[in-house]
UniProtKB/TrEMBL annotation, chain A:
Family assignment from sequence similarity: Belongs to the LemA family.
Keyword tags: Membrane, Transmembrane, Transmembrane helix
Protein name: LemA family protein
Localisation: Membrane
UniProt keyword annotation of Signal present: no
Keyword Lipoprotein: no
Topology of this chain in the membrane: Single-pass membrane protein
Chief site of localization: membrane
From TrEMBL, chain B:
Gene3D superfamilies given in the database record: 3.10.310.50
Source species, domain of life: Bacteria
Protein name, as recorded: TPM domain-containing protein
Residue ranges of every copy of the TPM domain listed in the record: 35-155
Pfam families cross-referenced by the UniProt entry: TPM_phosphatase
Organism: Halomonas salifodinae
Signal peptide, first to last residue: none
Amino acid sequence: MAASKSRGQVDGGTIRLLIIVLLGAAVIAVPWLVHNQLVERREAVAAAWADVESNLQRRAELVPNLVRSLQAHMDYESETLVELVHERARGLREALNEARGEPARLARLEAALTHDLGRLMSRAGEHPELRSGDQFLRFQAQLEGSDNRINVARMRYNAAVRDYNASLDGFFGRWVADAMGLEPGDYFEAPAEAHEPLVVEF
Amino acid sequence: MGARLVALLIGVLLALAALGWVWQSRWASQAPPLVEDRVGLLSEAQRRRLVETHRLLREDHEIDYRVVIDRDLGDLDRYAATEFRRLALGGESGRGLLLVLDVAANELRLEVGHGLEGVFVDAFIAYLEARQMTEFFAAGRVADGILASTELLVAQAEGADPLGSLGLAGSGGAGARLPARLGEGARRPGTTPLAGEVADSPEAVLAAYRQAMAQRNDNPDLAIYSRETREMLASWVVTPAQMDNMARSLADCPVEVRRGSGDRVVLRAPLSRGDCPPYFLVREAQAWRLDLVAMQAAIRFGRNNRWRLERGQLGAYAFAFDDLRLDANGYPR
């Protein structure tokens, strides 16, 4: 009878031990889970950034060929603009080699290149013989395609940064991030007209 | 006891099977449709025709091609990229295409998955939209425009390097966005005559046709067309892409056999070139002329892009094929 009673009941000491074990597990598990989430989101940011960089590289490499093809149809007055676009593309290429992980600077360079390319395409579009055939359509599609790829990569990168930064801002996130020395991610965006100054020598 | 247990087990199994069936049918009904017309632009018959074509495209070429027609979609580039990801088009291989048509903005975008970027480059997609699809849209024939551009997609996919189609899931913004030209009205056909004289032989007429197509001369009244052909072409939408395609096909197809009888001639390419159709010519007003009406009725192309004969439609041209052995579907053996 006494043996069956002791089998059916749990004494206070066991409950206390259980609570201590559970609390101990939570103290270990919560930072561990937060750490894992932060690492995962930081990796997502890095992957999204790699995508942005490869699309910027693609754009910077596309421009010289495209401008060379357009140049055949451009007049003398457009030479300055052609040279400017060349320099912008070169600047972006160099920055990609130097400025790994500097989204703000790359965003400014990319915005400047896009702006001047837009002017160049608009000037090229004024030539009726170029506009009437498929060549202009092809140039436009290539440029807009590269532009859109950058926009999609930018959108996904900024979403990844937003998620990552939100994790850092949480109570446990801040605590774990401080311990790991993690910094918030930078968004890939350039304020309007924030073009990096460029000196072009002719 | 044993019998009751067996009955219980059978009951449980039947209940599980019924649950599985219900779940599967619900899943199937919720699977994203191949053609989603949210504004009722297409008739039910047109929608079904598109669905069937896209189903065959998936079966034959493993290309997952969806269409969404809606209004006020906002930034179409962004919408297409987001929707492509949401629908997980093309699965793990990324062999997906998403055509989005915003009728309010009068814009369209064909988004290309990573797995097809090497096959359908941006410039090709822009060409397909501008020189084929929207030509039909302008004439108010949206379903025909989508179907006609699918033909170009198939031709491009068949000529593609299989290694170029290796890819990742999703899309990264490849494709092109252009004005949809809805309600613009069909382009008026040109009136440019043929460049130079055409010698009085069927071969010379075919060469002149190739030249006209290469120059995108869509004048339906060219002297190389028979009277019935001119009437037919006057009411047709002939797109620049169709003419380019025709010029390429003619340049690539040598004439090997000439079969004639009275005032009719058929020029045939080698039978090994199943993609090169025979050309029908008729003598009218003391000159050889292309009889595209008779060709249209008698020649069909299968899913494999090989021509076959509609034997009942050969009419006065039947003599030109009496040396061929045809299979049950009309394909030359």
